[in-house]
Amino acid sequence: ITVYSLIVKNMKCIIAAGGLGTRLQNFRDNKSTKILLEVNGAPMINHQIKQLNNWGFENFIIITNPEYSDLIQEVVKKAHSEFHIEFSVQDKPRGISHALQQAEHIVNNEKLFFVLGDNFFEKNPLEGFDLDEFKEGAYIFTKSVDNPKEFGVAQMDEGGNVISIEEKPEMPKSNNAVVGAYMFDESVFEKISTLQPSKRDEYEITDLCNLYVNNEKCKNFSIDGWWIDAGTPERIIELEEKLG
User: Fold this and answer.
1) Which of 17, 53, 131, 161 is deepest in the core (most CB within 10 A)?
2) In angstroms, rounded to a whole number, what is the distance separating the alpha carbons of residues 132 and 7?
3) Are 130 and 212 in contact (CB under 8 A)?
4) What three-state secondary structure class fits 126?
5) Whether the predicted model's global pTM rises above the 0.90 cut
6) What's the N-to-C CA distance of the chain in angstroms?
7) With contact defined as beta carbons under 8 Å apart, do 149 and 170 qualify?
8) Residue 231 to residue 236: CA distance in whole angstroms
């Protein structure tokens, strides 16, 4: 067993799966939540757990919404009884950092991996990442894109340290889109508790990452291969083609 596989096996992986995905309502008669939408014949959340397990994770915390929590639990437990999976409900849709905060009572002062339930990757973003070296701070993962205005955009120095992250900027400082996967140290929940809501009254993941950036404790890891943020019908179809 490698150091990598041991660390990942014991690390808690938190999946944000509470978003309703309004852009996918009624797509393929989907009346429930995005995460239960069928992708190649199986609910998206089950594909997500399979993907994460392929990277070595076995301990999961899934953040759901009140309306579909029971249904999500039922779907997941039926398909993945072999893993340790816990659930926590995000009562109101108050942003991605707020979703992460709902895992605080389950996580014991430990480093964690956080992923958005609708983000899929061709390759394991942690491949080549020295987890043993991860002592403090945060890691974001970025991918070079042609349309950075549509994403959170990170700017790095030559050493891979993140110097700024901007959400959907009009004038992007780079082409590096922040993908929906993050590594955080033990201080993450303390940091979330200091956040102020944004203009749209949400606790933003960009603001959380920028607290680490301001402390010079945020590093970047660039990923290879395709990345799909499956939030629209077009991207669902693209994902199905990629997953084959």
Assistant:
1) 17
2) 8
3) no
4) coil
5) yes
6) 30
7) yes
8) 7
Structure tokens at 145: 């894109």
Query: Where do the H-state alpha helices sit in the chain?
Result: 3-10, 44-54, 69-79, 96-101, 188-192, 205-214, 233-243
CA distance 96 to 109: 20
**Does residue 30 have a pLDDT over 70?**
no
CA distance 36 to 243: 17
Length of the chain: 244
Residue 131, token pair as written in the block:
């987890």
* CA angle (188, 143, 55) in 5-degree steps: 65
- C-alpha dist (Å) from residue 5 to 1, 2, 8, 10, 138: 6, 5, 5, 9, 20
Q: What mean pLDDT comes out for the span 206-213?
A: 98
Q: Give me the torsion for CA of 139, 93, 45, 11, rounded to 10°.
A: 40
